Structures are given as structure tokens and as C-alpha cells.
Amino acid sequence: MRRLLSLLFCLLLIPAAAQALTLRISGAPAEVETAFRQESQFLDPDLSQDVPGLQQELRLQRDTTTLEEILQSFGYFQAKIANTLNATDVSFTVTAGPRFTFAQPSLEAPELPAELHAQLTERLGPVSAPHPYFAGTVLDTEAALLALLRQNGYPRPTAKRRVVAHHATRTVTVAWKLDPGAPRVFGNATVDIPPALDPAYVERRLKWQVGTPYDVRAVDATRIRLLRTGLFSALQVEEDDTTPGEALPMRIRGQLAPPRTVRAGLWYFTDGGPGVEGGWEHRNFLGAGERFTTDLTLSQDRSQWETQLVFPDAVGVDRRLVLSGKALDETTKAYRTRSITVGGLLNMDLDSRLGVEGGLRYRLSRVDGTTRETHNLLSTPMQVSFSNVTDLLDPRQGVRLTFQVEPFTSLQDASRSFLLTSVSGRAYLPLGPRLTLALRGRSAAITGVGRDRVPQDVRLYAGGPQSIRGFAYQSAGPLDADDAPEGGLTAVDGSAELRWWVTDTWGIAAFVDGGGAFAQHTPNRLGDLFWGAGLGLRYATPIGPLLLDAAVPVAGRRDSDAPFQIYISFGQAF
User: Fold this and answer.
1) In the chain, which segments carry CATH 3.10.20.310?
2) Are 354 and 386 contacting, i.e. CB atoms less than 8 angstroms apart?
3) CA atoms within 13 Å, Cβ hemisphere of 433
């Protein structure tokens, strides 16, 4: 008998053949079934299904308890559950019953100002009749109550909650007792950061003033403001609760990120050949958040060196002075230009998404085109920009808009002065977890003079990888007798691109580009527009997607235009 019992016990411990059980559930509301399938142990990919029958029975009991808790969290307090388990299936049959609703909640918050108490009461709307009961609504409401206290001078509030289900009336009453704690005001701030950064730089970015009531929103805004500088690898903005009294001391502790960054990039375009670019950036250049950058671009037709020095608090906090210089030697089908540009801009953020800038710029150039000309141009560029796009290399959601105005004054001949204006925008619409519709548009115009009075390297052009793919660089516009681009006084172009990441590594794209540059201030007719279309391949890398696009002209092609163009670079096309 003992040997027989031992044999039976061993048989129970022998794993069954590895086979995933099919989970079936019927009668449950859709939201309940969805939540249950996320929590079921039978569907947990980290738990093996190849286990003894006794362990499967334990899972059945745990899943039944989990399903009951989920039903109650959605207000089905009178639900009944039946279950079965066999070698291939586990089934749950639910009789949900009526869903309970919220009754009138109650709130006890002694010694609070009447106005604040009224604001807290307004937050109780989601847990009031006749809304259906949901446990998540209770938790969200409690978080809103505590957040409101933290925004109005109470840094450490607590809450006690009592939830009672009334089966006779099929309602749920939620009662809170709030303890706001002692009201506090902001005290002095201690800055604990490495000495490489001037503490005054941090202090100027505090979003609160000493003596004002505590507000957690100011604490969060300060943390975000400092992190956006790019100077910190780790940052804490916290209260010092160890000091009693009405004033609440604050402490800012942080570690500086490595101050230097080296950049490099490669590309290949059929109309421009291979190219390479490199850059170096030094953040906190002089110890007060200054940023110095220098970039070099080399290709068969273009050499460019550009440098920039940014003073972050030149005329007030985050009112930046940007000093820049650029040397360019570029040869296109239309001209060769050698130019030097220097300038100074003041820019500032009106909020986290809206920015403005303006300044003074001088440009000296010699252009060899139809004739050889030297130009001395002084301009006052102004710009307003809006962006809520976060990922610059592979944007998948958000909008970016820019409006620019730049009056140019010729220091040689005042009659050759003109005004350049442009409006551009980009929008990224997520159509699914891996699918994005990207849209781009630009409209630019030069006014005040005729086209022949505008330097060839300042005129407006279209065509190329950032404009109308399928057409060579600058070629989507008027050509002279030698098929060289002449440029125009107006340029409009836009793109629609559908991007699909098939896997985490590989993606494909389909796109259509259209527009052109025009000698007149407006295109004569819609048929004058140039259109290109193509397909692309994307490969995800740590520095952004590697892009391979092939495009062909579909409308507006002339004998001088190539039948297709190939583009290889890092980062999305726009």
C-alpha cells in the first residue's frame, strides 16, 4: 500500500506534456474580460504551462479570485462565477448581475479655508450619482484631492478612505477624511551641485519665490526647466521636512552630465554625391550654462563651417544671446557662392512650446552665376515658432510651426533691398502603435524687387531631399537655356509620408511630394507644380533611423531631369 501511494504521489509531480491551455470566458462585460486577460496566470508568458495538475488547480483558484476582484472593481458586487478545467481548456462563466452606481460621497476636511474646501468638493463629481462605480475613479479622485492641497500650501496631506457597497440600493458610498497637515510657505533653497556650474544659474530658474505658499506645480516646473537645459544627468528638487516652522526649506541636488558631445553623419544623394558632417558641442562652456558648438560639412559640391556661442541669460533668465558665424563654399548647377555670415540673435521661450527670436545678421558673398557679383547684405531676421514634438530624429506625434520675416538691406545699392517671408509647418499623426502619417508644408516669398535684383544664392528654390524628392537639388523650378536653375520669388512645397515600423528595427515609408519655385509671386496654375513620389526603407539605429529613399518624378518632369533619385542619410526626411 505504501508503494502504491508513493507511485501515485510521483505521478502527480510528473509534468504534463507542454501545451498552452485555451482560456475561455463568457458572460463578462468587455472591460472586465480585457482586464482579466491581462492578469490571468494561465496567460502569463512568464509562467510555464508545463506543471502538475495540482498546480493548475491552484492557478484556477487564484484566477477565480482575481476575476472576482476585477468584477467588484467595476461595480459588479453581486456577480457569480463558475469555472471548469480540463487538459486543454480553462473556462469561466460569469453572471455579472447589476452594476452598482456611486451614491453621494462625503468629505471631511477640517480647518481648511472655505474657498479651498469648495474646490475640493468640486473634485467629487466623478464619484457622485449617477456615475457607474469604478475603483479606478475612486483612486483618481483621491489623487486629485491630494494634488489640490499640494497646490495650495499643504506639502504633505494624507487621506483616509472608506468605501461601502449597499446591496439593497445597489449603490456605493465613498467617504474621505483629509488631513492637510500644517500649511507651509517656500523657504530658502539650498543648491547642491558640482562647482563646475555656478549655483546662481540654478537659482535664477526657480519657479517660486521665498515666502509664497507652497505649490507643487512650481516644484515640478523647476525640475522640468532645469532638466531641459541638458546640463544634468540626475536632478532632485525636494522639500527639507526636517526643519520645523512655517517656512519650508527647499533643496536642489544634481549631477552634471558630460559637458562635451561629438557628432558625425554620412549621406549619399544621387544629385549631390556623398557627404560627411561632424560637430562638437561644449555645454556649460564658461561655467554659467553657456553652449559652444562648431560643425563642419563636406561634400563634392559643398563645404561649410558653422559655429555658435549661446549665452543663456544675456538679458534675463532664458533670454538667450546667440552669436553665430558661417563660412560657405557651394557649387550648384546655377551658381557658385562663397559667403561669410555673422550675426547675433536674441531668443526666448514664451512657454515650453512657443518661442520668439530676432536680431541682426551680416552676409558678404561672391556669386559666380550668369555674372560675377559681390553682395553686402544686412538683415534683421525675426521668427516665431511653436513645437510640441519631442523626438527630433524620429517624430511620431505633434506639430511644429515656424513663421519667419527677414528684411534685407543692400549696403551697396539700396534699390536692391527686399523682404523674405516664409511659413512652414510639420505635423505627425499617429495612426497606430507603429504607423505614422507625417505631413510637411512650406510657403515662401521675396517681395520688393524683381527676381534679377535678388542674389542668385538667396532666391527661392525647390527640389531635393528636403523639398520635392524625385527632382534634383533646386531643379523643381524655372531653368535657363542651359538647364540651370534660375530660382524664383515664390516657393511652395509639401509632403505626405506614411511611415510604418514593421518591427522594432525595420520600417518602410511611402511618400508624395509636390510644389515648386516660380519666377512670379504666385504660380500661374496648378499644372505648373512638380510632383514626385517614392518608397523608402528605414533601419533603427541608436542615433536615429537610417534612411534609404527612392523617388521618381510623376508630373512636371523635363528632358533634363533624371528618371529617379536615391537618398541615403540618418534621420527621417522631415
Assistant:
1) 13-95, 101-179, 185-256
2) yes
3) 3
CA distance 410 to 351: 36
Q: Are 100 and 168 in contact (CB under 8 A)?
A: no
What pLDDT, in 10s, does the model give residues 191-205? 999 999 999 999 999
Q: What is the 3-state secondary structure (H, E, C) of 16-81?
A: CCCCCCEEEEECCCHHHHHHHHHHCHHHCCCCCCCCCHHHHHHHHHHHHHHHHHHHHHCCCCCCEE
- SS3 of residue 88 by DSSP: coil
CA dist 477 and 50 (Å) reads 68
Cα 225 to Cα 206: distance, rounded to the nearest angstrom? 8
Does domain 13-95 fall under CATH 3.30.420.140? My reply is no
Q: Tell me which residue of 514, 531, 472 sits closest to 333, measured CA to CA.
A: 472
Output the nine-digit C-alpha cell for 337.
Answer: 557662392
Residues of the chain within CATH 2.40.160.50 domain(s) are 260-570
pLDDT of 221 > 70? The answer is yes
- Cα separation, 460 vs 465, in Å, equals 15
CA distances to 204, 266, 267, 484, 493 from 299, rounded to whole Å, are: 43, 10, 9, 20, 25
Give the DSSP letter of residue 490: E
Residues forming a β-bridge with 506: 539
Chain position carrying cell 467617504: 175
Nearest to 236 by CA among 287, 186, 190: 190
Residue 542 C-alpha cell reads as 541608436
Q: Which CATH number fits domain 260-570: 1.20.1250.20, 2.40.10.220, 2.40.160.50, 3.40.50.920?
A: 2.40.160.50
- C-alpha grid cell for residue 109? 476636511
Q: pLDDT confidence of 275, banded at 50, 70, 90?
A: very high
Q: What is the per-residue DSSP string for 290-325?
A: -EEEEEEEEESSEEEEEEEEEETTTTSTTEEEEEEE
Tens digit of pLDDT for each residue in 9-49? 333 333 434 456 788 999 999 999 999 999 988 887 766 66
Pick the CATH number of 185-256 from 1.10.3880.10, 3.90.550.10, 3.10.20.310, 3.40.50.720: 3.10.20.310
Burial of 186 (0-12, 13-18, 19+ CB in 10 A): buried
**pTM for this model (two decimals):** 0.76
Topology of domain 101-179 in CATH is Ubiquitin-like (UB roll) (3.10.20)
* Distance of alpha carbon 29 from alpha carbon 186, whole angstroms: 49
Nearest to 192, CA basis, from 249, 236, 241, 254: 254
Please state whether the peptide bond connecting residue 553 to the residue before it is cis, i.e. omega within 30 degrees of 0: no
CA–CA separation, 18 vs 528, rounded Å? 67
